[in-house]
Each structure stands twice: as C-alpha cells, then as structure tokens.
Amino acid sequence: MRHRLHTGAAYTGHGMPADTANLVRAFTAQHGCKPQFVAEAPGRVNLIGEYTDYNGGFVLPVAIDRTTAVAVAPREDDRLRVHSVDHDQRDDFSLDNARRHPMGGWRNYVRGVLWALLDSQLPLRGVDLSISGDVPQAAGLSSSAALELALAGAICAASGVQLPPREMALLCQRAEHMYAGVQCGIMDQFAAALAQEGCALFIDCQSLETEDVPLPSGIAIVVIDSKVPRALAGTPYNRRRDECAEAARALGLPSLRSAQQSEIESLPDNLRRRARHVVSENARVLASKAALRDGDGGALGRLFVESHNSLRDDFEASTPEIDLLVELANAAPGAIGARLTGGGFGGCTVNLVEAAEAQRFAEVVVSQYRGRTGLDGEAHICRTVNGMQVRDA
Ligand code: GLA
What we know:
Strand order of the largest sheet: 5-4-6-3-1-13
Radius of gyration: 21 Å
Number of strands: 13
Number of domains: 2
Bound molecules: alpha-D-galactopyranose
Distance between the termini: 49 Å
Shape: globular
Largest sheet: 6 strands, mixed
Structural class: alpha+beta
Number of helices: 11
C-alpha cells in the first residue's frame, strides 16, 4: 500500500543543538563573567489533537529542532539582569519585584516564570541571564513555552533547585495564564519539557498521564509557515475556550472530555459545532496514535483531512491562507496528511510527508503558495528532539 510506513527505527534528531557558543560569547560580553549553565528547550508541532488540551482531552505533539537557549550564572545579590540577545534588549529587576512589565513582550515571560517559581516557595537566587533562540515566533510553534521552560530550567539550575520537568511545565503554564494573558492548555509546556526524540508525546490532559509514541521511519514532519502572524492574546483563542466551557456547563459536565456525540445535538448551533470538533478530535487522536504504531499512513492522511475540516468548519480557527496551504499540500509529491496546527487563526500547517520527498514537497507547496498569495511562506523540515535539557556551559 502506498502509505504503509516502517515502524521501529525512529526518525533521527538531536537532543541539543551543538552551537551555543554564540550565546555563551554574548553572555560573557554582556555580564562580564562566564555562564555556569545553558538550558535549552524546544518548540513543538502538534501532530493532531487541536483545542482538546483545555477540554481535558488528548493531544499528540512532537518537540522540534527549533529551540530557545538561556545561559545563566548565579549572582550574589537578589537581582535578575536579563539580556535578550536576539532583540538586543535588556531587563533588570529584583526577586521581590517581578511585576508585569508595561512594555509587554519577552520581558513578561521572564517575569511570569520567576513569579510562578517564587509563588511555589522555591528558594531562588538572583541571576544573570542571556536568551537566544530560533523558534519562529507568532507561528503556532510554541516559542513562548520554549522560552518559559528554558528560563525555568536555567533559573532552577543556578539556584540549586531540583524540580521535576512536569512540575516545571505546570508552573510555566501558570506564568502564561497570569503574565501573557493566554488561557492555554498544558500541551505546549508538557511537550517542551517531556517530549522524547523520535517520538510523539501522547498526553491525556485530564489525568496528565503521558506516553511516548515512536514515529515510523520514512516519515518526515514538514511545517509550513503561512507568514500570517498572530499572537494568541490577540485572537479569539480565549473566546473559543470560553465557548467550550459554556458547552460543557450546558451539558452538565465538568469538561467536554466526557461529552457524547448524541447529547451535543441539543446545544445551540455555535456551541454544538465547537463541542463536535472537540469530541471528534479526541477520537481522531486515539486513532492517530494507533495508526502511528501500525505505520498506517493512509489512515493518518484521512485523520488529518478530517481534523483540518473540523477546525475550519466547526471550530472556525483556520484562515483562507492556511486552507490554501492544506489544499496545495494534499496535491503535492509525497503528501501523507496536512492540517492546521497549534493555536490557529494564522500560523502554520503540519504535514506528514514521505521522507524521500520532503524537500521536493516543501519546494512545490511553498512556491505555489507564494505564487497564489504573494506571501513569503516558509517550510521547516523538522527533526524531533528531547524536551528541556540543562548542561554545564
Ligand atoms: C495553543 C495553546 C495550547 C493548545 C493549542 C491548540 O498552542 O497554547 O494549549 O490549546 O493552542 O490546540
């Protein structure tokens, strides 16, 4: 069969990009001393299971080789002196004053993570920090979770605090809620903390149990950025979350996790469609997990098509540009499946592609997309990596 994939041997990636030398140099130039540790955390692409995490459902992301790294050294006082290498900007505040920064942006992730760690009574030290990364921003690849986890890893390491990665991820989610104003689920932070190279991370977002699902060999993950930027705080993301909560309330349920297709029919039209997406998407995640294990590319392709249609029509989280990318991908060489991924309302598609065709697939889709829209779409052929790691600098 055309899309029968080989199971077993994992698609190779690396745990930690080799070149953090620039970051270490920038740290030394900025702070006048050498860093002690470098913490690095990946962005993620969600294979399937969109808008299910905050409904207590299932998701299946992978961590990708686009990462954010934070170099750190402890200080003798209680100050945080922070340097964003990529923005060439700085911040400086004390441990007892991690209020939201009026200018917003990257500074509030630092302040938010610090607040969440302190709020858990962790004994932190003042630190010097330098940050740099290559996770595309505002693209639905969780640049914010990568930043949060790398910061948490760096600050904890420099303070001598041992915190299990899943606890770190939960604190980073609180930081996102409180300081970035996005009522996100747990998928992004769990992926950035817990994912394993060569595997998708299955998360039951109700029990918070996770399982590593090996990816079949011969399959490439190609992310295509529509270059229609969005920051979740400025999209209907939070409104969708409220609509899901309203649907669950109307059904007398704690969340849509346990909703049945039959009972949804009684809901008003917009709530019915939101709930229908969530219930059907949960079933698709379970089916995709089985298809990955069986190396059944045909089934994965069908599930991706259904997921995208449901996101477009029922959840109304797509855009014309993303729909076009999916349409072009489905007709391109080597295509197995294509769909909107991440927070939606712009951003990226995730594409499963026969590995041997990945380069050609990316070129064909991007050039057709540019021709049709005039937008500078961009493809990333991704390798999978491990979640957050800390090493000596
Ligand atoms: C964003 C959020 C996640 C999840 C996805 C949609 O990435 O941060 O928690 O809700 O959107 O699946």
